[in-house]
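Quick one, T. Sequence first:
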Amino acid sequence: MKAIVQRVNYAHMIIDEKEYSSIGVGFMVLLGVADGDTDKDMEVLCDKIAKLRIFTDENDKMNLSLAQVAEKGTETAVMVVSNFTLCGNCSHGNRPEFFGAAAPDEANRLYEAFCERLRTVHNLRVETGVFGAHMHVQIENNGPVTLIIDSADLKKK
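Structure tokens:
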């Protein structure tokens, strides 16, 4: 399971030319579920993202998590968008292939579980898109701070 995590000032999800969801300060997470990903992959990736300390403290050091920013009075949230193209392979030719992506039913199950874990275990506000829909995402990246996190790397530790 792979995630692109961006620290944002805001994110808006547009579906069918209407705003579907939005957040202010927080994380924009593009989540790719690969064939063979498990609940353990979902848990380690979710827990890592929830605890990331990439907001600046009073010394201008990236040292605060979303929860810590919220404790200081700023409303925070996470927007999570399923993105099978993160599982694409571009090593042959110029057209990516997506055979490494999980089947839609399993990808959606793990995506929903990921969002629910952020809500219940980490007590974070979570907004989403619509699984499988064509979506337009508007963000203002803060930094920019952008990380690529792979559950396979996290499980090695």
